[in-house]
């Protein structure tokens, strides 16, 4: 069930998506709200699970993470719901993990230091009992994508 949020919450969320380092005072100035009102709304959005976390965009090479790979995983046989995805998540080897439709069952994004690090992570994935196959694609070049645009009216989460 979608969480109900109003247009002010949506505008706050968009400003945080655009720049998570924005101060409550800066957001308040842009929206004509007191910083305390922004803080209260951000706290409520966090408590309701709408705002999950803030993150930073970093230069991966600058911190020694030169390998980015997308790993496609197939299940060997049907398992209890959540079994394989839970096992993959518990490995802690991927920055993203998605259940898919189509030929592959799961997609993992792995960011790591080097080929040896990647190999170790792939070995851990392959050792999961319900994993039948692993296919890996290395990223050669990345460009920033566009930021998420929060719908301001209509949609399932509007009031």
Pick out its properties:
single chain; 159 residues; Arc Repressor Mutant, subunit A; Alpha-Beta Plaits; 2 domains; 4-stranded antiparallel sheet; 5 helices; 4 strands; 34% helix; 18% strand
Notes on the protein architecture:
The chain has helices at about 5-20, 25-30, 35-45, 85-90, 115-125, and strands spanning about 65-75, 95-100, 105-110, 130-140. The chain is α+β, with helices and mostly antiparallel strands. The protein has two domains: about 5-45, Arc Repressor Mutant, subunit A (Orthogonal Bundle), CATH 1.10.10.10; about 60-140, Lrp/AsnC effector binding domain/regulation of amino acid metabolism (RAM) domain (Alpha-Beta Plaits), CATH 3.30.70.920. The protein has a four-stranded antiparallel sheet, with helices on one face. Helix 2 (about 25-30) crosses helix 3 (about 35-45). The mean pLDDT is about 90.
CATH hierarchy, class of the largest domain = Alpha Beta
Helix share, percent: 25-40%
CATH fold label of the largest domain? Alpha-Beta Plaits
**What does the main sheet amount to?**
4 strands, antiparallel
Order of helices and strands: HHHEHEEHE
Widest beta sheet: strand line-up? 2-3-1-4
Distance between the termini: 14 Å
**Unreliable segments of 5+ consecutive residues:** none
Shape category:
elongated
Sheet-strand content, in percent, reads 15-25%
- What is the CATH architecture annotation of the largest domain? 2-Layer Sandwich
- What class do helices, strands and sheet pairing give? alpha+beta
Helix count? 5
What is the radius of gyration?
20 Å
Overall number of structural domains: 2
What number is the mean pLDDT? 90
Tell me how many strands there are: 4
Assembly state: single chain
CATH superfamily of the largest domain, by name, is: Lrp/AsnC effector binding domain/regulation of amino acid metabolism (RAM) domain
């Amino acid at each position: 069930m979608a969480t109900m949020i109003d247009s002010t919450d949506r505008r706050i969320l968009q400003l945080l998506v655009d720049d998570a380092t924005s101060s409550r005072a800066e957001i308040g100035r842009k929206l004509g709200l007191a910083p305390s009102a922004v803080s209260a709304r951000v706290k409520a959005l966090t408590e309701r699970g709408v705002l999950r976390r803030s993150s930073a965009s970093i230069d991966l090479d600058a911190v020694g993470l030169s390998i980015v790979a997308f790993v496609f995983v197939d299940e060997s046989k049907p398992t209890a719901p959540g079994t394989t995805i839970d096992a993959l998540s518990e490995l802690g080897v991927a920055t993203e993990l998605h259940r898919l439709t189509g030929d592959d069952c799961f997609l993992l994004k792995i960011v790591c230091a080097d080929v040896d690090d990647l190999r170790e992570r792939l070995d851990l994935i392959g050792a999961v009992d319900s994993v039948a196959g692993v296919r890996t694609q290395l990223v050669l070049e990345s460009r920033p994508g566009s930021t998420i645009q929060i719908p301001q009216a209509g949609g399932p989460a509007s009031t």
